[in-house]
Amino acid sequence: MDDRQFRNAMGNFATGVNVITTEVDGDVHGMTANAFMSVSLDPKLIVISIGENASMLDKIRKSRKYAVNILSNDQKDLSMIFAGQIKEKHHVEFEWLSDLPVIKDCSVQIVCDVVNEHVEGDHTLFIGKVVDLKLEDCSDPLLFYKGQYQSLEKTGAVI
Length: 159
What we know:
Layout: H1 3-10, E1 15-16, E2 18-24, E3 27-33, E4 36-41, E5 44-51, H2 56-63, E6 65-70, H3 76-82, E7 94-97, E8 100-103, E9 108-120, E10 123-135, E11 143-145, E12 148-150
Antiparallel strand pairs: 1-11, 2-3, 2-6, 4-5, 5-10, 6-9, 7-8, 9-10, 11-12
């Protein structure tokens, strides 16, 4: 199988979109990601996956903490800004949660201390112990499927 075939296969799994943030030497850093999952309830652990060429890799290694900001359907522009798809300068409004910058008005903000890291292939997995979180009652999540942003369709069906 070639790389494109593998990417296409992985693109058939719909994911939520989030922005990973951290702070190093007083500067806020962020990147769009969809490689995120819950690992454990006791203790509360999550994992993010950062590519070896991403500038965020060294930032998280230095800060030893990160926040996951789960984006709502109306925050596609923030995803594009932190993915580098929008090149013009934009003001992004941050709040602070447990001494880390988080994106204002996200559906979920999760703050973690890095407890372990594993280099696997061309990515590093950062396992984070959840130290704080904020949950908002927001619109539907921003989704990514087959290389495009998507949204949930309201069908009214009860399952």
